[in-house]
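Notes on consecutive records. When two proteins share a document, each keeps its own sequence and its own C-alpha cell line. Never mix them. Below: protein one.
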Amino acid sequence: MKYPEHGSMILEIIKEGKIVPSEVTVKLIQKAISFPDNQNHKFLIDGFPRTEENRLAYEQIIGADPNIVLFFDFPEEVMVNRILNRKHGRVDDNDETVKTRLKVFKELSLPVVKYYSKKGILHT
C-alpha cells in the first residue's frame, strides 16, 4: 500500500533530518487501518506512538486508545549491543550516538509508556 500524495513530503522531511509530523503519521496509520484488504481489523503498529505529541495525535485522529501496548524493556547494555551488531544498521550506529538515542528515548517515550501502564493496557 503506497501513499504517493505524502511520499515526496515525507522524503524531504527525512532528508532534512527532521521527524515526520505526528498528524501525517497518524493519518497514514488511519488509512492503513481502514484499507479494504484489512478484513480482520488487527494491527501491530511498531514504534508508535513514541512521544506524548504522537499519542495525543493518535487519540485525536483515530478516536481511541490501542487495545494493547507492548513494551520490551531491556538493560541499556543489551540494547546498545544489539543495535551495534545488527546486520542492516543505520549509518550513525556507533556507541556514542546509540547512547544518545537511548537517552532521548527515555526522555520522550517513557512518559507514553507510563500513560499506557496507568490505563492498564501496557504489557511488558
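Protein two starts on the next line and is unrelated to protein one.
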Amino acid sequence: MPNDVPPQPIHSAKDALDALAGILGGALPGSIATADDPADTLLNDPDVASAVTGRLRGAGSGAGNDTLCRWLYDAFRANVPELQLAVLRFVPTLAGVYMCRAVSRKPLAGFEAVLLALYAHAVAQRGGAGEAETVSLPNLANPSPYHDAKVPPKAKPAELDVAVLSPPLEPHGTMRATRRARIVGAVLELYHGKLSRMPLSSKMDFCEFCVAWAGTHNKADDDDKPRLPPATDAVTGAEKWRRVPLPWELFQPVVRIVAHCLLGPSRSDELKAQAARAAECLYWRATETMDAPALLATRSLMRLSQMVEEPIPEPSFSGAIENMAELEAMRANILNTKN
C-alpha cells in the first residue's frame, strides 16, 4: 500500500476530493476529479465509498504513516460541515476494523488519530466540559396533570427521574485499552446524530461489523451455538473480523444505530434484514453476559422488529353492513306498527 504521497492542505470539499484522488490514484475513475458537487461525491458516490472502505479494510491499514488516515484527519479538522459529514460516513468501517484489530494489540496509530479527533469534536459539542446527556422522565408517583384529583395530594410532588443517555466525556489525547470502548462509543454517538444523512452503504457496513463484534450466530445461520470467528482465513488470506468486548458504553450506541436502521424511515429491505440479523446477534451476545440493560434493549428491539413485519389486517365492514340492514328493517317495522 503506497504511503509516499505528501499530504495536501484541505480547506474545501474540492481540495479534499483532489487530495483523495492523489492518495487513491487509479482506484477512482477519472470523472470523480471533475465532479460538479465535490461534497456530495465524497458522501454518496459509490466509487469513492468502495475505494475508501476497501483501503481501510486492507492489510496494513491504520498505521501511523497511512495517508488515507491522514486525509480523514485533515478533512475532519478543516471544520467544513460537509467534509465532516463525509468523514463520518466512513465511521462504521473505521471503527469496525479498528476494534477488530485492537484486540490483537496491533499498532494502529492512524486509526487512533482519526478516532481521537472525532472524540475531541464530540467533547467540544457538549460545551467543552463533556457533560452527560440526560433526559427527564415523568414520575408516576405524581398525580396526572390532565385530571382533577378527587383528594388533594398531601405530600410534595416527587422529583422527576433523570435517565443518562450518555455519560460525561473526559478529554483524552491518547488511546488506551481502558478508554477504547468509551472513545469509540462517543464516536458512534456522533455518527448516530447524523445517521439520517448517511448513505445506505454506510449503514450496511455498520450492521456487518455489529454481527462480527457480537461474535455469535443467529437462528438463521447454520448452527445456533455462539462461536468465535477465526482471525484469518488460511485459504483465501482474507481477514476475518473478530469478536470484541462490548461494555455498555459501547453497546448502547450500537443498539441505537441498529434500531434506526431497523425501524427508521429507510425503505431498503436489504438494510432491514441486515439490521434484524445484527439485532439478534447482539441479543445472543447479551444472553452470554446476562447484562440486564443490554438484554432488555436487544429483546425489545427484536420484538419491535417482529411487530413491524406483521401485516396490519384490513378492517372488515361486512358485519357492520348486515347489522345496519337489520336495524333498518326493525325501524321500518316499528314505523308500520305505529301507523
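For the record: Residues 3 and 66 are 6 Å apart (CA to CA).
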